[in-house]
Amino acid sequence: MPEAESIQNIIHTLSLEPHIEGGYFRRTYAAEPENGKFFASSIYYLLTAQSPVGHLHRNRSDIIHYFHSGQSFRYTLIDTQGYLSTVTLGNNIDQGETPQLLVKGGYWKASELLIDQTDPEQYGLISEAVVPGFNYQDMQIATSHDLLTLWPQHQNTLQHLIKKA
After folding, report:
1. CA gap 124, 68 in Å, rounded
2. What is the fold of 4-161?
3. Which of 10, 31, 32, 64 could form a disulfide with 39 if both were Cys (CB 3.0 to 4.6 A apart)?
């Protein structure tokens, strides 16, 4: 595992910034706009032991997640019918992890870095490809109200994935 300053080096070298859903990111590609919207876009996304959760949210676009390095990510997904599932994104294929994950537009998702809470030097680095390209107006972050009204049956599972106001 890298030393703490190595995580800061990743953030610096990749020019990452804090993301509103948690973690760090940088847009690395945005296809030429068509009718005011990007055809496709891509980002780096980093979670660390200090910022281990990408809070529950949904996007209009399909998003493909690609695992690069560090600790695995657990994704909690809620489909358009309210069915909850989890998938682990990582390179331990023989342990049921997958190095690539498609999350369909309209699905709610949250990501968690699978870490040992006693080790502050852990991180996970992925990329995301978004089609059509990402636009903040196409993103909705879940609230406590959403949790109570949309998925009361999943309240215990999802509570820690809701961004605090």
Report:
1. 8
2. Jelly Rolls (2.60.120)
3. 31
